[in-house]
Amino acid sequence: QVQLVESGGGLVQPGGSLRLSCAVSGFLLRYTTMSWYRQVPGQEREWVASSTSVGVDPQYADFVKGRFTISRDNVKNILYLHMNSLQPEDTAMYYCRGRTYWGQGTQVTVSS
Fold first, then answer.
1. What pLDDT digit, counting tens, does each position of 54-85 carry?
2. Could you identify which of 26, 45, 60, 73 might form a hypothetical disulfide with 39, taking C-beta atoms 3.0 to 4.6 angstroms apart as the criterion?
């Protein structure tokens, strides 16, 4: 059974940092391109970042370049999203995706 379970979200002040995790079971990260998305209520889900199976040449949406870093631990089968310099506009539910599977999301709220 495939499961993607995100964690690490929360409330953070502007300029702060968070690290999101996505624990995967049911398939191996080492063979899978993984991505992070985010969604604000009433808006389309938008792509944030992707990491190929070998973890090289990660791709980022322009609005997170230089602030967010996607990484993976292929041994633990966990995907990460390191988020720095968070701003109120980063407030959203963050989801990980692998193959056709999605996690349930973790809420990130940036507010003073």
1. 767 899 999 999 999 999 998 999 999 999 99
2. 45
